[in-house]
């Protein structure tokens, strides 16, 4: 079985045009709970299995030449989950960063975060700050984790900050354009995602990157996150490479070429 899936992955990899790999891939990692439920396991086991996928996917993405991998880890709405699940997810994030930090430096993985991490438990926030500082000079790939992230919250913060700058007389409202607005988002400095993947079969954005995904290619796949292997990732990229990106024009424009 393993050999078969490795064989499939190799065949799929050969179909990818290395010159047109999406520079930024964003993923809504969904279906951990359902993966566990199918196996009669507790939901948290699904989160543990899901966290293991992140390491491999980061390696695979880096090898393909992807420059930014944004992963939706915890939304502003996920606080509505049972307290035990929330606290487990927080600890899992902290231990993931702690275990991976040295390998991230070795592999050139630059950690960044979007979302309000000031609201996270101290230990988790400190681990984020530590690993971001440790990997500050890494430049093979940016692993951008969306934690306590909500696109509406992000847009509101930008609007408030712009209004405050204008009120202080530091900003002329007439000069607010897309670039200026984007520079006030958590994602300032990152390119927009070329490809946005959601696993688990749900077909919605769940408050993810509403501004940045304006022209992303959307890919929804009916695989729960812990089962999302290299072959599944390659299929998403192959599909992306067959899309026609027009950005409102008439000709296909590939910003990655
Ligand atoms: C995604 O899996 C992980 C997080 C939202 C943290 P879910 O926990 O949402 O899994 P399902 O959707 O209930 O199966
Ligand atoms: C989106 O998944 C958030 C993350 C993957 C972190 P959810 O499972 O929270 O989304 P809904 O509730 O099904 O829309
Ligand atoms: Mg879910």
Q: Strand order of the main beta sheet, please?
A: 3-4-2-1-5-6
Number of domain modules: 1
First-residue to last-residue Cα separation: 36 Å
**CATH fold label:** Undecaprenyl pyrophosphate synthetase
Small molecules in complex? 3-methylbut-3-enyl trihydrogen diphosphate, magnesium ion
User: Low-confidence segments, ≥5 residues, pLDDT <50?
Assistant: none
Which second-level CATH architecture applies?
3-Layer(aba) Sandwich
Describe the protein:
With 257 residues, this protein is α/β, with parallel strands linked by helices. It has one domain: Undecaprenyl pyrophosphate synthetase, CATH 3.40.1180. Helix content is 45%, strand content 14%. The protein has eight helices and six strands. The chain has helices at residues 2-14, 32-38, 43-64, 83-107, 122-134, 151-167, 178-182, 230-242; strands at 24-28, 68-75, 109-114, 141-149, 195-198, 217-220. It has a six-stranded parallel β-sheet with strand order 3-4-2-1-5-6, sandwiched between helices. Helix 5 links the parallel strand 3 (109-114) and strand 4. It is globular and about 65 Å long. The two termini are 36 Å apart. The model has no long low-confidence stretch (mean pLDDT 97). The protein binds 3-methylbut-3-enyl trihydrogen diphosphate (IPE) (2 copies) and magnesium ion (MG). The site of one 3-methylbut-3-enyl trihydrogen diphosphate (IPE) has 11 residues, from helix 2.
């Amino acid at each position: 079985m393993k050999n078969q899936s490795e064989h499939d992955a190799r065949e799929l990899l050969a179909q990818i045009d290395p010159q047109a790999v999406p520079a930024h891939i964003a993923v809504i990692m969904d279906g951990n709970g359902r993966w566990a439920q199918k196996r009669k396991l507790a939901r948290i086991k699904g989160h543990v299995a899901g966290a293991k996928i992140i390491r491999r996917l980061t390696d695979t993405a880096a090898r393909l030449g992807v420059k930014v991998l944004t992963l939706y880890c915890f939304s502003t709405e996920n606080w509505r989950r049972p307290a035990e699940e929330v606290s487990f997810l927080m600890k899992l994030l902290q231990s993931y960063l702690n275990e991976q930090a040295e390998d991230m430096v070795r592999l050139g993985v630059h950690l960044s975060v979007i979302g309000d991490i000031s609201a996270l438990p101290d230990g988790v926030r400190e681990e984020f700050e530590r690993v971001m500082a440790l990997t500050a000079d890494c430049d093979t790939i940016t692993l951008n984790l969306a934690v306590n992230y909500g696109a509406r919250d992000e847009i509101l913060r930008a609007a408030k900050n712009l209004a405050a700058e204008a009120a202080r007389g530091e900003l002329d409202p007439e000069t607010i354009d897309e670039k200026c607005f984007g520079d006030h988002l958590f994602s300032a400095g990152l390119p927009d995602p070329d490809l946005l993947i959601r696993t688990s079969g749900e077909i919605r954005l769940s408050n993810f990157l509403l501004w940045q995904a304006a022209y992303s290619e959307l890919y929804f796949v009916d695989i729960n996150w812990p089962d999302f292997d290299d072959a599944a990732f390659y299929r998403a990229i192959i599909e992306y490479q067959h899309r026609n990106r027009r950005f409102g024009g008439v000709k296909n424009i590939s910003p990655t070429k």
